[in-house]
Amino acid sequence: MTRTARAYTNIALIKYWGKKNKQLKLPYTNSLSLTLDRFYTDTLATTIDNDKDIITLNDQLLNDAESKRIRNYLDTVRQMYSFDEHFQIKTTNHVPTSAGFASSASGFAALAGAINETKQLNLDKKQLSILARNGSGSASRSIYGGFVEWNAGFDNESSFAVPIDETPDIDLTLLSVVINQHSKKVSSTVGMENSVKTSPFYSNWVTLVSSEIKEIKQAIAQKDLQKIGEISEHNAMSMHALTLSANPSFTYFAPETIRIIQLIKEIRQKGIFAYATIDAGPNVKIICTKESIQRVQTYIEQQLSNVTTVVANIGHGIEYI
Amino acid sequence: MTRTARAYTNIALIKYWGKKNKQLKLPYTNSLSLTLDRFYTDTLATTIDNDKDIITLNDQLLNDAESKRIRNYLDTVRQMYSFDEHFQIKTTNHVPTSAGFASSASGFAALAGAINETKQLNLDKKQLSILARNGSGSASRSIYGGFVEWNAGFDNESSFAVPIDETPDIDLTLLSVVINQHSKKVSSTVGMENSVKTSPFYSNWVTLVSSEIKEIKQAIAQKDLQKIGEISEHNAMSMHALTLSANPSFTYFAPETIRIIQLIKEIRQKGIFAYATIDAGPNVKIICTKESIQRVQTYIEQQLSNVTTVVANIGHGIEYI
Question: Which of A249, A256, A258 has its CB closest to that of B251?
């Protein structure tokens, strides 16, 4: 009986921003994330006697254009593990757009897990992380729970995630603040590429990440919440400084993003624990403690009418159900 | 008969951001500005038989706290030129806060001119620029009209502005968009200091300015408006990337600043000439042509209700009236 693979989304505290190798999705730097418990993707793969993959997402059959990225990925997987079969892929995505998280991390991690399961590849987690990375860089980290580091590596075999602490006994929780506004978006792939090619600050970013990874790992080991918050916020803002200094300049910030950053500063001035992290979009994730999250959520919701907030806690790695 | 010195404000197209020497106000990099015609400061200095300077601003006598920076500056001037007299300083500032420009550039340039006049120091413009720089770095540039470069130098005598083209025959005009919102402000002095000390990108900024100064001077010589706009916008955004990447991160942007940046992109997509430059505050200055400025102003005013816009053209250097 083939089982369904379930993988959770993750939030990068030290960001992945820039590919050294587009084809293999090898990054310029390591990155470090926290796997979350609330948002996940369930994927079941079964081999079929067909010369084309059949893919359904949330019970809807995807057409050629919609399924192209997944079919290309399956071609890569077939090549990597030297087999020919095609698949029926049934994916259910429990990462609502309205929660402000990208679904590619949990999506490609679950897909890698599903192929591993149905083809009985018996991959260990390192191999699974490599397989997931070939779909989406950040998916490499969703193989593990808790704090996870993705080692940049230098080729397909050396670029994979490792667990830092899968079940950390640490009082962190995340508030996702979603801005109810649709703006034209620069995809993270394009945004990364423009930053690498044109930001005069990119070389300094590579050096920065290397030192902030070391610092945050030390802070995690020491359960130093404030340090974790400070490093995460600084790293995220520095990533956004790369987009601002790209040529031409661009930003993922919406007006409301600046407002939320201002509110987080106000909250912190009241002695309440709250630090910002922001991915390639206008939404803000606020790193909180179990003590602070209620007050942070209330404050944000009182000050801003056009946002939705969602709470997520530390989650675990890929599982089969 | 002692004359009044009149100096105009200027807008930096290549920003001054970071002091190598605080006392002497020596910058880390050159900067390049455009002197404007609409906003200026008139200052009359007369020697008085008193052991303290008496300073009035817009006919109001300044108290000790309010006049401290000016009195300290006058002490520096007395030391530089080895004299003892104190002054009555009458300053009229025609740089309304509501126009979104800092008055320190025109203010200290006019004050330097007024002392030169009343003490009959017969300073040439280079010496006058050095004298103004000792009051406020950007004042060094307000001695000249048109495009002006401030050479960073390495000591008091070598750090002064030079004219690039005092009366450029070039179709540029500026729209200042002032956000009607008072937010707690990080002064530019503190903002610079934090950026220099804590932004991991500062060393790359120094290199960037050096190449953008060369490029914009070439563009000015060739009257290449688009290049001037592009370089100016990129340089300004890169300066703001330094604040975002400072540790702790900060920004001069207000929510409306992001909105105006978005609108400028929309305007440009319609084929209308408009580029942004932003100083140490939330207001945006839009670099326009005589052809585009009316449409830019209308577009901004239609989209945003809570802003004030002001037009300024290319202005000339210090004069005596």
Answer: A258
